[in-house]
Write a structure and sequence with these properties.
globular; 20 helices; 0% strand; single chain; mainly alpha
Length: 439
């Protein structure tokens, strides 16, 4: 059989798989689905898991390790608060795609003046570069820690792997969802092992999970980094695109049912992401801060120090989770960039060209020998500056009853998301003030 025919057959199987998933979902929504709970839920699982990989990307490794090593368990409440905010915001993003059949970038183009649309696009491109910086560096570090490869070689391998994973999109949405969900599983399993090995003080963990504290200006910087690494602008834009045409249904009641199943997808996926983030900080606090190694502030130092403290397996598991995080989040970041370009400007740029442009800052960081971990933390702070310009349009659209119909936000939902946006803006203003006053 020729290679061309083989590729055609693979595409057909992918299309059948994707069509089968959509058909199964429509059966459940019509009340004819299987009896088992898991069987009913499976067709709807996927979009939130792809979006959730952005919540466990290498930027999270950098901010959580620094926060745990320097301040112990003190900032773990920021992770839980950010994760709850992420669940709420990603739910609204998914709801926008279901209710309107359009993604957030497209809605901005259709509803806002041209100048505002172009301004938002430029800002989101800068955010995409900051995002790609974290993901690219993280995967390159993963290759370096696992195989001893130079960072530049790891970066080239990351770019190649991203293209291969993105190529799965031609076979429908299900293969890509399966691969990204597999990466999420690897990261979660890795940190389950790390948590067992480091034996945390669960009493202190629970206390700091519910008692907010911000230990000085550096603590505020790391808190902003955690927020920026947890609630990510590109994941918000992407989630609305993932749900806009995945399962097409008509009628108010069926859209309501589809949205309820999507809420389950969000809660499960973001719950796993929240566990991973908390486990990262707990690992750093239990291993480094408790051992007096508060100066462990880089990913390389964390990997190097884990082996003598917890054994060789701990270092290997850590590096493997970092590599899985970098590869998967790099793929998702590139896909999000494509969605934004097409949504804001109605223009398509080849994936390879877009990838080369967004890789430029990462290559410069490697070429000039800048500290990868510090660069990762600052990139996450930059992401937090993009959040208000993502959240505010999302709230405006999802609160519009003429646009959303029966899925329009309730007043309490709009108030809750407005509070989140207000807190983000306040933290951003504080960081600007500290920057220009020498803090």
């Amino acid at each position: 059989m020729s290679s061309q025919r083989k590729r055609a057959n693979v595409r057909k199987r992918g299309a059948r798989s994707t069509g089968g998933t959509a058909a199964a979902a429509r059966e459940v929504l019509s009340g004819r689905g299987g009896r088992g709970l898991l069987r009913r839920l499976l067709p709807f699982f996927g979009p939130a898991f792809i979006a959730s990989i952005a919540y466990v990307d290498p930027g999270n490794f950098a901010t959580n390790i620094q926060a745990g090593a320097e301040f112990g368990y003190t900032l773990i409440w920021v992770i839980f608060a950010s994760n709850l905010a992420a669940m709420l915001i990603q739910t609204l993003s998914a709801k926008l795609g279901i209710a309107t059949g359009r993604n957030l970038a497209e809605m901005c183009r259709l509803r806002f003046p041209r100048a505002v649309t172009w301004g938002l696009w430029v800002l989101m491109e800068l955010v995409a570069m900051a995002t790609d910086l974290a993901e690219f560096l993280g995967a390159a570090l993963g290759f370096n820690l696992l195989f001893g490869l130079p960072l530049i070689v790891g970066g080239i391998l990351t770019a190649a792997a991203t293209f291969l994973i993105l190529a799965l999109e031609r076979y429908g949405f299900r293969p890509l969802e399966a691969v990204i969900t597999g990466f999420v599983g690897i990261i979660a399993l890795s940190y389950l092992v790390e948590t067992i090995l480091d034996r945390p003080d669960w009493g202190l963990v629970l206390r700091h999970a519910v008692v907010p504290q911000l230990p000085g200006p550096e603590g505020v910087l790391l808190a902003a980094g955690i927020l920026g690494a947890t609630v990510m602008p590109h994941a918000i834009f992407l989630h609305s695109a993932l749900t806009q045409g995945r399962i097409k249904v008509r009628g108010r009641e069926r859209k309501r049912r589809l949205f309820r199943y999507e809420i389950v997808d969000v809660v499960v996926a973001m719950g796993v992401a929240g566990f991973v983030n908390a486990a990262m900080l707990v690992m750093a606090a239990s291993t480094f801060h408790r051992g007096g190694l508060t100066g462990v502030g880089t990913i390389q130092e964390a990997h190097r120090t884990l082996e003598p403290l917890l054994g060789r397996a701990a270092g290997t598991v850590f590096a493997l989770s970092l590599l899985a995080s970098g590869l998967s989040s790099s793929t998702v970041g590139t896909s999000a960039g494509q969605v934004n370009m097409q949504g804001f400007l109605e223009r398509h740029v080849p994936v390879w060209l877009r990838r080369l442009v967004t890789l430029a800052p990462s290559l410069l960081v490697i070429a000039f020998g800048l500290d990868p971990t510090r660069t990762l933390v600052i990139s996450q702070v930059m992401l937090s500056f993009g959040l208000p310009f993502t959240i505010i349009p999302l709230v405006l659209f999802t609160a519009d009853r003429r646009l959303m119909g029966p899925l329009a936000n309730r007043r309490i939902t709009t108030a809750a998301v407005g509070l989140v946006a207000g807190l983000v803006v306040a933290m951003d203003l504080y960081l600007i003030y500290r920057t220009f006053t020498g803090g």
